[in-house]
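Researcher: Quick test of sequence recovery. Tokens follow.
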């Protein structure tokens, strides 16, 4: 039985399926921690010619993600100290956090926003490369709903 499971969610509709599967892997809800990584708003857009405040936009994205992640956690009884909203590149951030908290398993969806047809380069594969703990993929996507 795993002692600490890090569950990576992209906040899409499939997130619940990933969380539910992780829940089945733990005999105690206290063993689960959730993570979502907000990707930085591309530097290409941070030019003065666009009348957009990039840092405000970035903060809004973080606030939204934080709120949504807390809700997903609260739905199954995970406290706010066990949910992590990070900023950066998803795969390395997920791996680093798993190391930091001493997770012995990462649970992640097989597909996400990028669609079920894109296999290579998916976050799950990137997390797997270089992971120092078990990585379990939960089959999500169109065919998973059939
Ligand atoms: P994708 O690489 O977009 O196909 O997503 C595959 C899975 O990786 C998703 O189902 C999530 O479990 C996880 N994932 C994708 N993006 C993120 C993210 N920004 N933060 C945390 N987990 C993510």
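Model:
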């Amino acid at each position: 039985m795993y002692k600490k499971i890090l569950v990576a969610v992209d906040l899409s509709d499939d997130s619940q399926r990933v969380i539910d599967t992780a829940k089945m892997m733990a005999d105690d809800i206290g063993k689960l921690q959730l993570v979502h990584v907000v990707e930085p708003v591309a530097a290409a857009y941070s030019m003065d010619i666009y009348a957009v405040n990039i840092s405000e936009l970035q903060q809004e994205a973080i606030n939204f993600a934080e709120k949504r992640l807390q809700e997903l956690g609260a739905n199954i009884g995970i406290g706010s100290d066990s949910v992590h909203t990070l900023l950066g590149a998803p795969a390395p951030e997920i791996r680093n956090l798993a190391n930091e908290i001493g997770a012995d398993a990462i649970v992640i969806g097989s597909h996400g926003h990028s669609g079920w047809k894109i296999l290579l380069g998916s976050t799950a594969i990137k997390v797997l490369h270089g992971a120092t703990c078990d990585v379990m993929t939960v089959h999500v996507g169109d065919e998973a709903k059939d």
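The chain has a mean pLDDT of 88.
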